[in-house]
Amino acid sequence: MNKIAVIISFLLIMASTACHQKWCIDSYVDEEVKIYPDFKGVTIPCNIAPLNFAVLHPIDKSLRLRITSGEDTCWIDSNNCNFEIPIDKWKYLLSRHNNDSLTFNVCFLDEQSCTSYRPFKMFVSSDSIDNTLVYRLIPPLYGVWRHMGIYQRNLEDFKQEPIYENDAIGGNCVNCHSMCNRDAQKFLFHMRGKSGATYICRGQEHLRLDTKKDSSISNFVYPYWHPEGDFVAFSVNKTFQVFHNSDPNRIEVIDDASDIVVYDINANKTLTSPLISTMENLETFPAFSPDGGKLYFCSAITPDSLPEKYQEVKYSLLSIDFDPVTGKFGGSVDTLYDAQMPDAKSISFPRPSPDGKWLAVTVSSYGNFSIWHKEADIWLLNLEENKWQPFDNVNSRDVESYHSWSSNSRWMVVSSRRDDGLYTRPYFTHVDENGVSSKPFLLPQKNPQKYYSDEMNSFNIPEFAASPIKITTPEVVNWSKSPAQKVR
Amino acid sequence: MALGITIVFTILSFVFQRYSLSQLEENYIFLFDKEYIGSVLDECGGPSLLISSFCTQFMKWLWIGPICVGLICGLIVLSLTQTMAKLNPQPWIFSFVVFPIVFLWLCLENNSFKFQGLVSLCIALLFLWGYISLPRRLPLLWSKSIAVLLAIFLYWFVGSVSILFILGILILELPKGWKYAAFNILLLALFYGCAMLSYYTGLVPTTVRAFSPGMYYEWDTTWYMLLYSWIAVTVCFILSCIFRDSKNTELRGKNLVLFVLVCLAGIGLGVKFYILVHSSSVYRTMQQRYYCKQEDWDAILNIKYGNEKTPFTSYRLLAMAKKGILVDNLKSANPFIGYFMENKTLVKKEDLEVLSDIFYQCRSMGEVRRYAFDTNMVTPGAFNPVETLKLVEINIAYGDYEVAEKLIANLEKTMFYADKAHALRRFLNRDDEVERDVILGPMRRAIPTENSYMSPRGTGRDLLYAADANIDNIAAREFYRTFLILTSGHE
Hints:
heterodimer; A: mainly beta; 7-stranded mixed sheet; 5-stranded mixed sheet; about 45% strand; B: mainly alpha; 25 helices; about 0% strand; elongated
């Protein structure tokens, strides 16, 4: 009986000291540890999931990780060179060390001694991040697809849930999901092909819209909600694809014609102005300012021959006033960036920060489909001082394209192909009051090396949501059976 | 009977199915990967999918596929006859077993080759045989509790195909009285409960997969053949019930006639469907793809063809081009080549495969990169190892080593492609090795040094470049000359 009591006591003591084992580092090697994903020196939000990583050194010794901050120390053993940090220990560390650094020592064990590589740090920001990321998982396509879906991922753990998977309705295409101010209650997406329509959800109101009008170029395409949730700006685009033979960029998606319209949800009608729907220009990528009084968009001169002259197509950044009360547009267009200047670049995806201070855009050499442009980078426009600045810490030698702001304007998620040049991955960066970004970190996964090696889909249109979206595939299937309302 | 069926269908499959079965191995790849297996087992019907995917790994060997098919057919017959025998031991009734098997076999002959449906049906029938074999003295509540547990387990194991198990019990126990009928209707309700739960919790993505035995099938010809097969299984049970009280002596003469009629009808249907399947362009395309992989161009040219769709003839064009006789035989090729030069979006796997193969043989690099990728996309699971292997070579040729490495890592998890993929690792980030290699070197040289947008279907300029880059690229040269002749003729 006594023996059992001793064993139980021993186990209880072991369990209670799980985060405080009395391991110690015996020596150090002056060598930097190579890890994947590269989380060294990143700034992380105080509510992010554990940043698990793998050690890339070919090493046949046992590995152990020590995480320290202040008086807190945590030891984790590796599993085949992978460190999976227990979520409770991680949350404990983050909660106690806001605005502080965590120091990571990767150690290898040699018989009796424990040797550490050069330590690295992560800075824990007290700025939290929206807890949900919504994205489409889709292979980097040429012409055909089979499976795709819109998913949401809880950023505080590793749980991913489908919002809609296209197997449910004959493998059709779904795209351009968008939320109003990251509000999960106000959500829209398009479905193409069978049951094709624009699906708009506002709380309990579920609309299924037939958006093709005789007078318009196409169905609604790139969306952006008005902050009050009563209007959505869309582009309408006539698009085609061409393929490069030997360029590092494989594909071009080209607009033959494009305009911008604003859809009034309550009145079920589209609003537009001759200034945003011109024959001679290609207008696209609309985005409302946070106060709703301005509509940003991109515009290029329609060339006389496509695709031959496509490399001359460069999109300027423009804005026009919008009055949500009357639904009227301003009488003139302001130019924020003129792509007709010598050596000018092309602008796509204007996205204002919720605090109204910054406008983030993608800058590429030409065209608007920057996801296939290796030179594409993110730039910021300081809207108060009208000054441009590159997102230096974020941009890489490969594609940085789609981007989205968090609710508190302190985090941005950026689509990047820096890992392998083909498969888009979401990277997160902290943006301070001066628009300075931190080194970005890859979306954490339980086993990131395996996950990102196996994942053959791109993360398309990553968008923050303040809470999880409550729509599921069976609901979308039922929704798709409702009659489509013709937009006036 | 089961042994006979096993042998007959093994031989039949060997003779007629080797083209399709070798493709099956490409379509449903099994990854030796803990997480992959875990993710498949998470789904309803996952275990049976896993078993079939595991079996398909071995279909690369010529005899393994037919033996698998033969064994499954044999097991289905064994479980079906044994189940029917519990109710009605008269041998004539077993003749009806021919029908589901004929339909099932023809399913495989058709273009979908969904092996997992066959495995699921076999498992469902084995479970039914097991349940029917429970001791008769077992109390009703006990036997029904076992049925409930088996049904739930089976829903996870074979997915919605488990409805055949429940329908089987319902029919076979009808003569036992209203209590059994009531319990079995409850069992049916339980099935729909399971199905609803699976559908609304996202365990199965579609209503077809949740509620019907069409778990693994889309609404195409194969689905209808499977449906006939399932109806035939149900009819077997109904007949067993209806004739359970008839005496052998009373019906001997009539039985014999019926038996002969059933066999003749079965054979007739079999012949009809056999002709239907084997005369289809899809089947011939598959035959040709098989020979294309073997680079047996004579075999392709020796296949007789009629007015099939042009993808079939495109392999024929390729074979002619590889042998350097395409231009000389332009008169016979002319009616079909127009299709090849059209610029329309192709979405069917067979069409994309043939284009991928043609451009691979012509070393027209931009096109092969596109069509190999597209073929991969339309393959179930978006992973076709043959096309992926092509993509590895192409990405290495283009110098996209990081993408190539990612694809190699995936291929290394397969059984048959692991070694080939691993051997390609030595070219990663080694431009000098790539340029020296007999396969990758010519591929790299075939990439135009000056960029341009790809022409529709690689005609004209791109083919000329591929032909000029490698003096021995007869196929590209032949296609280019054909293109010139045909376009000048049109103009």
